[in-house]
Structure formats: C-alpha cells, structure tokens
Amino acid sequence: MNTRDPAEFYSELQSEVGRVLVGNTDVVEGLAIALLTRSHVLLEGVPGVAKTTVANLFARASGLDVNRIQMTPDILPADITGTHIYREATGEFELHRGPVFANVLIADEINRATPKSQSALLEAMQERSVTIEGDTLELPDPFLVVATQNPIEMVGTFELPEAQRDRFQQRLVMDLPERDEERQILDEFDEQPTLGPEVVEAITSPDELRSYRERLDDVYVAPPVKEYVLDLIAASRDHPDVRHGTSPRASLALLNASKARALLRDRSYVIPDDVKGLAHQVIAHRLILHTDAELSEATESDVVADLLERVDPPGSVSLDRHNGLDAGERVVEPME
Question: What positions does the domain AAA+ ATPase occupy (predicted)?
Fold first, then answer.
C-alpha cells in the first residue's frame, strides 16, 4: 500500500492542478476536503471563472472517473440516474446507467433544472445509491457531486431548496482573478492556446484516497475546539438577522471538514483556525435571513463574519495520546 503522507499528496495535487489553474488554491482544498469526508460541494461564481474546469482538473488529478451533465429546465430525473431501455433484438429491458454513475459528477448550472430534477440528486448525495424502477443500485466509491451555479443570473432558474443546500458540505466561491493572476492566464494561454484538463495526470488512485479517509478517525479534536464549533452553530441560530439557523448536520460538517483540513496540513489534531477557516464555506449557504436583513442588503457571509467576531475561539488546544503522551501528561499547543 502507498504510504505517502496525506499532506504530501495534497501538495502534489495542488501542483498538478496548478499546471492549468491559476490561483483558487482554496477551492482545490475545499474539493479535497469534501472528497475525504464523503461530502459534496456547491461551486458558485460568475460565468467564465473556470468552475467546470477546476472540477475537471481536480477529478483528473485525483485519478477519478468524471461525468458532466448540463442541467436545463427540460432535463428529467431519468436523464441523471438512468433507466431501463427495451432492446428489440433481445426482447429484454437493459439497464442504461445515467451520468450519476461516476466518482465525480459535475452538475453544471444546477439551478437551471426544475426542483423535480434537482431532487433526483438527493438520494444519490445522501444515500450514495439510486433507485431505478424499483432497483436500488450502489454508486461508485468515492462519490462526489460538484454542482455549479451562477449567482447573478436569475432568469429561468430555480433556487435550490433549503433541504438540498443543506446536503452540500461546502459552498465554494470562485471570484474574478486579480490583475496579476489574469496576466498569468493570458500568458499561459497565449503560449498554449489548447491548454486544458487533458494535460493533467493522475497523482493518486481511489484506493489511496480511501486510505486517507480512514486516517481521519485518528485526527484528534480537543473538547474546547468542539465547544467552539457548538458555539458558532448556536450563535447562527440566535443571530438577529437569521430566520432559520443551521442544523446538527452543519455542526457535523464543520467538525469533519476541520479534521480533513488538519490532515491535509500535516497535523493529527484540529486547531481553532481550522474551524475559522472553514466557517464561511460550511455555514453561510445554510442560513435563511429575515426579510428585513435581505432588504438592508445583508448577506449570509456578513452574518458568518459577525459570528466569527462575536464568538471567541479557545486560546490553545490541549493534546494527549496523539502526541504519544500518557493520560496524565499534557502539553499546550499554540494556535497557528
């Protein structure tokens, strides 16, 4: 079995994806965290910022099968999951598997599909299986849904319902590049006009990724850090701008994502900065604001920023068995 360290794998992943992608290392990290924690990602950004490209790059570098489906108003649930097709030559029905049967499914512009078609992904995302005409079929392992959406174009779209947004561990936002990054993009594509995901090589395999997932169980979370997670979640429910706060699924998502972030950063323990660094992408898309807050142009991200200001993190993290210490011997590790 490959004994490569998860942090080494993550460094190589960023380098391989960086052969095409300029910037957005935080998006690649978010995708890696979701993959290791058996979760899914909502990727948001204006047209032209390479949302679909980054998902393709990540899948190829991770050695995973990837399928893309363009979500449109006329797409049917069977177009996503699959159906049985009658073969006249044999006189039998044959199962035709839909694009959901892949390690990575890119659901492009998910908010253009009707709620009925959007809901076809719910079972796949939650249960990691689909039911086709009464038959329940397991999906590949690993399985990751990367759904993209455009936040500024609302005509002809269907907003994701709260229940579906809650199924996504993170909402990752791809912003427009800085001027120096855009200059680098111009230079690279001027030299190689056909540069694309096909130049990226796999630097890992599904078996290796599954071994990294197993190591998450050994990442230690000290009680003060768990309390910090609970404090942030509780504050999201009591915030004056929030009509509906986050559910226990959000606290679990924040905890598990923090463990994966620690693992990718070569630590066997979670620190408060892991929680703070993931709060926006785990909590914001789950919040439902009061109408007054929306009218005053407050955003979910503004609320999370306020939560991080109001809720004090623990000043240090006590470590124990993960540093090879006896139960009575404890040390204090400073925050990063």
Answer: 37-178
